[in-house]
Write a structure and sequence with these properties.
- By secondary structure, this protein is of the alpha/beta class.
- The protein has one domain: 3-Layer(aba) Sandwich (Rossmann fold).
- It is built from eleven helices and seven strands.
- It binds S-adenosylmethionine.
- The site of S-adenosylmethionine has 19 residues, from helix 6 and strand 2.
- S-adenosylmethionine (SAM) binds next to helix 6 and strand 2.
Length: about 300
């Protein structure tokens, strides 16, 4: 089944999107055996939701082209297209016709873009394996995911952590539906709940309840990302780990906050009661010639401090 799906993936890319072949080959070259295993598993979940691989790959190719165009526009303008969250909500998050394709495209990009393959393997090796085994060695430990989108990160976490339960919060109704169906396809429906909610309101929830937290690619979508880091700190138990990612100088239609330096993200964590344990910053293999901006994705594994001095 997994091999059939991988064969189908390559056949669709070669036949319908020959210009994407090189990029996906670069992603596989990061670690061919692990790429095949992870991509096969993700495609299995996609098919399990009733999703169509060809449609998802088409969405991925369109999204990749749009990302490249947005980056070229950003090079010329020196700033991201949108500044306001309300604009992006109205044009994007609230619109199912856009969000469904977008979310499947983002889901695939987490393994089909080489620099995101690196981030995904870092998530598995350094966060799930190294930081989460101990907190999730007992029953009833809780993982929180902020902005799950398609739900792929949390679903992967539940695969690796058999005792974990997960609560996910996303502002988009499409995300809630897709994340629920993905989790069900992976056999984890009884361990997940997904709720439509603005992440920035989560400071109203009881604090210090999360044994670990995932928040991937949300910070750059916000006008004031500092509020997100305050929420993460509020939700984590002292000593608990979190996996946080963000895009830097990487334009997309829904990116608002322009992170320019990796140190800005480290500083946000440190200013909000968290210690940075490990980081990985990765860039696409090929970028615009003589570009001013190098698009990067950064992952941080952080830990809530027990007190200000620890
Ligand atoms: C780029 S997607 C990331 C999806 C997934 N976490 C990933 O890394 O592949 C951004 C997600 O953030 C969600 N989002 C944007 N603003 C939000 C907010 N204020 N509160 C909760 N979710 C939000 C969007 O609905 C979307 O699902």
């Amino acid at each position: 089944m997994k091999d059939d799906l991988l064969t189908m993936l390559w056949e669709i890319i070669r036949r319908r999107h020959p210009r994407s072949v090189r990029g996906v080959e670069e992603a596989r070259a990061v670690c061919p055996e692990r790429f095949d295993r992870v991509a096969g598993r993700m495609l299995g979940w996609l098919v399990g939701t009733g999703g169509d691989v060809e449609k998802a790959v088409d969405a991925f190719a369109t999204y990749s082209t749009e990302v490249n165009l947005a980056q070229a526009r950003y090079e010329a303008d020196g700033q991201y297209q949108h500044r306001s969250f309300d604009e992006v909500y109205a044009d994007h998050y609230s619109r199912r016709d856009r969000m469904d394709d977008y979310l499947w495209a983002v889901f695939l990009s987490n393994i089909l873009w080489a620099h995101h393959t690196e981030i995904s393997l870092f998530f598995r090796d350094r966060f799930l394996e190294k930081r989460c085994q101990e907190p999730f060695s007992t029953e009833a430990a809780e993982l929180v995911e902020i902005a799950p989108g398609h739900g792929g990160w949390g679903t992967w976490a539940l695969d690796v952590l058999p005792h974990a339960t997960l609560r996910g919060f996303d502002i988009s109704p499409s995300s809630i539906d897709i994340a629920r169906s993905l989790s069900a396809a992976a056999g984890h429906a009884d361990r997940t709940s997904y709720i439509e909610q603005d992440a920035l309101d989560l400071d109203q929830m009881p604090g210090e309840s999360a044994d670990a937290l995932i928040c991937c690619f949300l910070a750059e979508h916000l006008e004031k990302p500092g509020r997100l880091f305050a929420v993460i700190e509020h939700l984590l138990r002292p000593g608990a780990p979190a996996f946080v990612t963000a895009a830097l100088t990487a334009a997309q239609v829904d990116h608002i906050y322009e992170f320019r330096r990796e140190s800005e993200l480290v500083q946000l964590c440190e200013d909000h009661g968290m210690r940075v344990l490990e980081t990985l910053c990765a860039a696409p293999r090929r970028t615009l010639p003589k570009a001013r901006f190098l698009p990067r994705s950064m992952a941080l594994i952080v830990q809530k401090r027990h007190n200000d001095l620890s």
